[in-house]
Amino acid sequence: MQIDLICLGKNRPTWVNTGFNEYAKRLPAYCTLTLKEIPLRKRTKNADLIRLQQQEGEQMLATIAPNAHVIALDERGTHWNTIQLTEQLSHWISTYSKVALLIGGPEGLATACSQRAQQYWSLSHLTLPHSLVRIIVAEQLYRAWSLLNNHPYHRA
């Protein structure tokens, strides 16, 4: 299964890329995690934010692989504990060849992206920096995979 983490924004600090890559490379070939970045359009004082969000959303939608199961990361989504995420990952692996996880920009996901999603996942009630979300998602997917495979990484 191919998991694409599709998010807005490029040129993240080195520590963000290092953290994401560390967990992504730990996943096996049958469950790969790839980062796909969409450039964030410039926000100016008089920018039409709704239009920018819509344009960025169109780019995100164009990046989603055909027939992918789409999951929007959204504060209104379902909160999964580690065991529940492990069950989700198991289901995704057995059901889909491609999964797309969508992370919106400063204004959140475009309406069209939210409508395309089949599931909604909330990482926290807290507002998290989008850079950090990349690392958290990668680590949690690796943790879920380690539980599925009786790997000693998860010791709770």
From TrEMBL:
Coiled coil: none annotated. Keywords: Cytoplasm, Methyltransferase, rRNA processing, S-adenosyl-L-methionine, Transferase. It catalyses: pseudouridine(1915) in 23S rRNA + S-adenosyl-L-methionine = N(3)-methylpseudouridine(1915) in 23S rRNA + S-adenosyl-L-homocysteine + H(+). GO terms for molecular function: rRNA (pseudouridine-N3-)-methyltransferase activity. InterPro entries: Alpha/beta_knot_MTases (IPR029028), RlmH-like (IPR003742), tRNA_m1G_MTases_N (IPR029026). It comes from the Bacteria. Signal peptide: none annotated. GO terms for cellular component: cytoplasm. CDD domains: RlmH-like (cd18081). The keyword Metal-binding does not apply. The keyword Transit peptide does not apply. Its main location: cytoplasm. It is an enzyme of class 2 (transferase). It is found in: Cytoplasm. Belongs to the RNA methyltransferase RlmH family. PANTHER family: METHYLTRANSFERASE, RIBOSOMAL RNA LARGE SUBUNIT METHYLTRANSFERASE H. NCBIfam families: PRK00103.1-4 (NF000986), tRNA_RlmH_YbeA (TIGR00246). Specifically methylates the pseudouridine at position 1915 (m3Psi1915) in 23S rRNA. This is Ribosomal RNA large subunit methyltransferase H. It comes from Thioploca ingrica.
